[in-house]
Automatic annotation (TrEMBL):
It comes from Methylobacterium radiotolerans (strain ATCC 27329 / DSM 1819 / JCM 2831 / NBRC 15690 / NCIMB 10815 / 0-1). SUPFAM superfamilies: MetI-like (SSF161098). Residues 58-248 form the ABC transmembrane type-1 domain. Its EC number is 2.1.3.3. One of its GO terms (biological process) is transmembrane transport. The chain crosses the membrane at residues 7-28, 64-83, 95-121, 127-150, 171-194, 229-250. It is a multi-pass membrane protein. It is found in: Cell membrane. Pfam families: BPD_transp_1 (PF00528). Belongs to the binding-protein-dependent transport system permease family. CysTW subfamily. This is Ornithine carbamoyltransferase. GO terms for cellular component: plasma membrane. The lineage of its organism: Bacteria, Pseudomonadati, Pseudomonadota, Alphaproteobacteria, Hyphomicrobiales.
Amino acid sequence: MTWVTRTALAAGLGFLYGPIAVLIVYSFNASPMVTVWGGFSTRWYGALLADAPLLSAAWVSLKVAVLASLLATILGTLAALALERQGRFRGRALFTGLVFGPIVMPEVMIGLSLLLMFIGIGLDRGLVTLVIAHTTFCTGFVTVVVGARLRGLDRSLEEAAADLGAAPARVLTTVTLPLLAPALAAGGLLAFTLSLDDLVIASFVSGPGSTTLPMRLYSQVRLGVNPEINAASTLLVGLVSVAVLLASWLTGRRRQG
């Protein structure tokens, strides 16, 4: 690697992660002024425990992320099995577009489309609409992860189980799904991260009492930044980073296996 490449790499990483590093450092700022360093302190992390609206938003985000990731993992796995194991079938192209469409569509378009659908069917916006919207958005990502694992799976193990008399359902539950476990976990963690971090789609489909943490932080930032927001953002960054690193580790195990 030449010095030009190293310099470009360092500049790129600094541009991407420098602001996040500054946010984390100033979350430990003792001063109430976010641009003035007043010494090291964890007072703003303690202040989060007394911020009931922020804690309520965080609880909503966690509930939505857990439910959406579970549903997206189930639906994404079924979609991957259909695409990888069923060969060509009528409507395959349409089905593929429906599964992977949310990955490439702008989130504004997804949020607006879902909002119009919920209004059209008379479904009140709230926790249910948030879970449906995030499940729709995350399913395609799970399908990509699980589908990649299915393509590299040793089919002889499933064929051996079938030759020994196992029914297709038993082969799926005792052979296929255990072999897919790392990919299922990685896909679920990816869906959890995407749901937890979403702001745009949630802004369209949330309702009274279903404000998510990113929405709450965004609304507070518009009124002014304070170190408490830095502390909340740091915790969110840490949680997302742990989920991403765990998903990457599971994906690496999947590839080695």
